[in-house]
UniProtKB/TrEMBL annotation:
It comes from Arachis hypogaea (Peanut). This is Uncharacterized protein.
Length: 74
């Protein structure tokens, strides 16, 4: 889908554990940046050895949030 932007309704883009794409976004690469520059919040996460605990906690929080949404019907 060359040249296509991500949807205008997208408010957050998180890039996790993808070094090459993260670097392209940080450097505003000419093929990537026009597709995402309209997104208000772009977060680029890199996983390193010391991040395993944080990643585990984030995963547990995400699981808990999905379960909560299931039970309250959202």
């Amino acid at each position: 889908m060359a040249g296509e932007k991500l949807p205008c309704s997208l408010l957050l883009l998180q890039i996790k554990e993808c070094r090459l794409l993260g670097e392209h976004c940080k450097k505003k690469h000419q093929q990537i940046w026009p597709k995402i520059s309209h997104i208000p919040t772009i977060q680029i996460w890199r996983l390193c050895q010391t991040d395993f605990t944080r990643r585990y906690i984030e995963d547990q929080v995400a699981i808990a949030m999905r379960e909560l949404q299931f039970w309250i019907g959202s």
